[in-house]
Amino acid sequence: MRGERAMIKQIGLILSCLITIIFYSIHSVEGSNREYKLEEMIEIAEKNQISITSWQGYLKADLGTANSDKEVNKIVRNTKAKFPFIHEWITHEPENHHVTVEAKIDKQVTSQLYKIQIYITESNEGFQMFLTLQFKDKSLDGEELHQLLDNMNLKMDKEYYTINGYLEGKPDLEKITTNLMDGFGADYIEGVKEEGFQSISGFTSKWEESIPAKNNKKVNLQMGLRYSPDQERTNVTIGTPIIITEY
Q1: Nearest CA among 225, 226, 245 for reference residue 57
Q2: Cβ contacts of 214 within 8 Å, gap of 6 or more
Q3: Do 227 and 149 form a contact (C-beta atoms < 8 A)?
Q4: 55-65, pLDDT tens digit by residue?
Q5: From residue 4, how far is each of 7, 8, 9 by CA, in Å?
Q6: pTM of the full structure
Q7: Which helix (H) or strand (E) holds 167?
C-alpha cells in the first residue's frame, strides 16, 4: 500500500513537471513568433553588409465588439489601464461613424513608441473596437518594444515591421536580393525589376502571418532596393508581411 502511494506520488510529480515544461514551451514559442521578427530582419540585413538606419513597427489588436456606450467606455478604460505611463488621452471628433482615442506620448518616457490609438467604429453589429501601436526608432535595440508588449498582456492580431538601410555604391541587385531571400528561407512570389531598382515579394514558412497574393499564393516578406546616384548608394527597405513605408 505504501509502495503504491509512493508510486502515485512519483507519477504526480512527473506529470506536474511535464505540464510546467509544456506550458513554458508554448509561451516561449508564442513569444518568439513576435519577438524575433524584427531582430531576424536586422541580423540578415547586416550579414549582407546592409547598414541599418531605422525601423518601424505597426501592431494591431482586436478589442472586440461592444453593444452599448457603457461597454465601449469599459473597454476604453481597460485598454488605457494597460499604459500607466500615459497621463493624457485625446478623443477626436467622430467622423464617418468612427471615433479615435489617441494617447499623448511623453517622448522622455518612451522613445520608440510613436503612436497609440483606440478605434471605435459603429456598425449594424454594434461598435467594433481595436487598438493600434506604432513604433519607430534609429536604434537597433527593440527591447523597449518587447517589454511593453509583454507587460500589456494583450494579443496582437497583426504585426508589421519594416527596416531601412543602405549599401555603399551600386552592387549587383540580383545577387543581393537572391542572398536576402536565401537568408530568410523565402520563395519568390512576384516582383518588379528595372535598372537600378528591384521590388520583390516572397513567402517564408518561418513566419505565420501573411497576406494574400496572386494565384492563391501568400506573401509575408517584401524588399525594395533602389540605387540613388545623388547619394552614391543603394537604399534598402525590408518589411514583413509588407513594407509599411515608401521606398
Answers
A1: 245
A2: 189, 190
A3: no
A4: 999 999 999 99
A5: 5, 6, 8
A6: 0.79
A7: strand 158-168
